[in-house]
Amino acid sequence: MPSVTSLMARRTILDVRNVKASYGPFRALFGVSFSVPAGSTVALLGPNGAGKSTVARVVSGLVRAISGSVTFDGVETTHLPAWKIARMGMAHAPEGRAVFGSLTVAENLELAFRRSGASEPYRTLMSRAYSAFPRLGERTGQLAETLSGGEQRMLALARVLAVPPKLLVVDEISLGLAPVIIDEVFDALRTIREAGTTLLLVEQQVSRAIEVADRAILLSKGEVVIDGPVSELGDAAGSLLPELPGG
Ligand SMILES: Nc1ncnc2c1ncn2[C@@H]1O[C@H](COP(=O)(O)OP(=O)(O)OP(=O)(O)O)[C@@H](O)[C@H]1O
Ligand SMILES: [Mg+2]
User: Fold this and answer.
1) Separation of 130 CA from ligand 1 center, angstroms?
2) Contact present, 94 and 159 (Cβ < 8 Å)
3) Which atom of ligand 1 is nearest to the CA of 95?
4) pTM of the entire predicted model
5) In what order do the strands lie in the sheet with 26-37?
6) Which of 197, 196, 180 is nearest to 134 (CA)?
7) What is the pLDDT tens value at each position of the chain, 247 positions in all?
8) Which of 139, 144, 83, 76 is nearest to 116 (CA)?
9) What is the distance in A from the centroid of ligand 2 to the CA of 33?
10) Which numeric CATH code is attached to 4-98+164-243?
């Protein structure tokens, strides 16, 4: 008999089937299929323009698939608006710095936590955020616009901690950050994962992503070319991975 945990580990939290997507006349995805087991960390890798961010956007409802389907936590979400998908427990940490510059660190978190409808006391949520991101805890009164790029990205990530999402889609969280900051961000991702969140990591930093991920999906020109356990990436990926920036 498999244990309860091994059964849980095998449950699929996200299933993407034959998804095609376009931007106007430009076709970005040509029938992408993969699934993400609950509790796992999946790295979505590939060169610039491969379609990684498009996959992330389709999954979270920000871009509509032309055909194919997306199923999240057992519910087909292909045609649901992004906010409904978010309500179901999916968070999308987008590229860039999605924070309110004229508010302090603490105010940004307070706003996010109040909006999240979390049941836990506000103080508990704040201390969880500051223990995941000590650097933010040292800057609670600082205006977000004066934070460094990396600190702003940490703040954006800390805001999803109020209600740990079932699935967190993270797009290029390490882009343009110094290695020491990337370490902190990845430590925080591990903390989020330990709280039970499944992670779909879009990354150019192949080595970092592979360090935390159980599975890797390699996209090229809008198609999945490799999908398997990180431990089996090996030779098949060898010919493609060196081409990737940061790989
Ligand atoms: N809003 C858009 N309008 C038109 N074309 C777009 C748009 N967004 C993306 N594309 C195109 O779709 C393709 C896939 O883009 P996408 O952003 O998904 O790639 P990516 O793998 O995330 O690349 P990167 O590693 O550079 O972030 C690219 O050729 C890109 O130019
Ligand atoms: Mg991208």
Assistant:
1) 34
2) no
3) 27
4) 0.87
5) 26-37, 12-23, 67-72, 75-76
6) 180
7) 445 555 555 799 999 999 999 999 999 999 999 999 999 999 999 989 999 999 999 999 999 999 999 999 999 999 999 989 988 999 887 655 678 999 999 999 998 888 777 788 888 889 988 988 999 999 999 999 999 888 988 898 888 776 788 999 999 888 888 888 888 889 889 988 988 899 999 987 888 888 899 999 999 999 999 999 988 876 656 555 654 443 3
8) 83
9) 18
10) 3.40.50.300
Task: Give the pocket of ligand 1 (CB within 6 Å).
Answer: 23, 26, 28, 46, 48-54, 204
Cα 165 from Cα 193, distance rounded (Å): 10
Within 25-173, residue ranges assigned H as helices are 52-59, 82-87, 105-116, 122-132, 134-137, 149-158
Domain coordinates in residue numbering, the chain: 4-98+164-243
Residue 207: both structure tokens together: 């080595």
Contact (Cβ atoms closer than 8 angstroms) between residue 133 and residue 154: yes
Check the CA dihedral 240-208-165-22 and report its sign: negative
